[in-house]
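wait is this the right file?? whatever heres the structure
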């Protein structure tokens, strides 16, 4: 089975076979007349930049508002994380993510001339039909993460430990990390950045010939080289996003990079962002499940420090 399978959707991130002799200029073979109009490759790098920048702006604005409302005399030099208690930090991220997705839901259909989930290739039906394979894969990634981190000597405290000070905080971060965060991160990394970087790669490596230009306008496939390049690049960004949470442990960074590559493989293999989100959610869920068991349902959070 191919890593880059063909897909019925005109915009699916699939590979474009190297043209054979029958495809060469002058061979008498021409693109399908029904597809002579230029196809729209979405989401491209511009669409991805708008999505990421909007998320960043929303996050900063909400942080400024909450910090301004919650600041009291004597806290002028405290950092944002210290001023915003865990519940507020979770609410801040959840509001940012949901607001960004809501804005994208209305904005991108106007640009893409198709529904947001179609342009993104969410395809929940695919994920649902393959859930029996995807969920165990996510759990397996969680087991592997636990096995690898067993050999890593972490510092006494990690930044994420701040979210496990109370039982309520622990359950809130569990729900956020199992549902909201995986969906948003997969939309961002596998829905926007993966095809955007691949499209940019193919465009920059496109021969400047009339035949190449025609093929670009009449197909919407992505080359294996572009998908590999994009998978590596997006996985680097994915790992860096979580770097601070892991107290800048390079070994953990490599593990996260590898997990991102697996999520990208699932995304490309199934042609569904929902599929990679399901694997991501199952992976995060297993990580939280280990802590839940360790602390007796978050009743004994002091055991995390042992």
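ok assuming it is, sequence goes like this
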């Amino acid at each position: 089975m191919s890593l880059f399978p063909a897909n019925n959707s005109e915009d699916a991130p699939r590979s474009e076979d190297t043209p054979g002799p029958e495809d060469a200029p002058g061979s008498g073979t021409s693109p399908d007349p029904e597809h002579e109009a230029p196809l729209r490759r979405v989401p491209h790098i511009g669409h991805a930049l708008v999505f990421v920048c909007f998320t960043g702006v929303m996050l900063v604005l909400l942080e400024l508002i909450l910090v301004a409302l919650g600041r009291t005399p004597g806290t002028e030099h405290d950092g944002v994380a210290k001023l915003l208690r865990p519940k507020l930090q979770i609410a801040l991220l959840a509001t940012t993510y949901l607001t960004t997705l809501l804005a994208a839901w209305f904005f991108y259909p106007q640009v893409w001339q198709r529904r947001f989930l179609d342009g993104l290739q969410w395809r929940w039906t695919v994920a649902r039909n393959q859930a029996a394979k995807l969920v165990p894969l996510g759990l397996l990634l969680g087991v592997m993460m636990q096995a690898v981190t067993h050999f890593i000597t972490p510092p006494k405290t990690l930044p994420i430990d701040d979210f496990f000070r109370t039982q309520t905080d622990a359950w809130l971060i569990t729900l956020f990390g199992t549902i909201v965060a995986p969906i948003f991160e997969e939309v961002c990394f596998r829905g926007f950045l993966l095809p955007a970087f691949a499209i940019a790669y193919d465009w920059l490596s496109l021969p400047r010939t009339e035949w190449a230009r025609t093929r670009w306008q009449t197909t919407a496939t992505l080359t294996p080289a572009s998908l590999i390049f994009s998978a590596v690049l997006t996985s680097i960004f994915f790992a860096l996003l979580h770097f601070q949470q892991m107290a800048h442990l390079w070994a953990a960074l490599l593990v996260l990079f590898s997990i991102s590559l697996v999520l990208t493989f699932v995304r490309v293999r199934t042609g569904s962002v929902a599929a990679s989100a399901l694997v991501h959610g199952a992976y995060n869920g297993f990580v939280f499940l280990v802590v839940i068991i360790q602390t007796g349902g978050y009743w004994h959070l002091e055991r995390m420090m042992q």
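The radius of gyration is 22 Å. so i think its the right one actually
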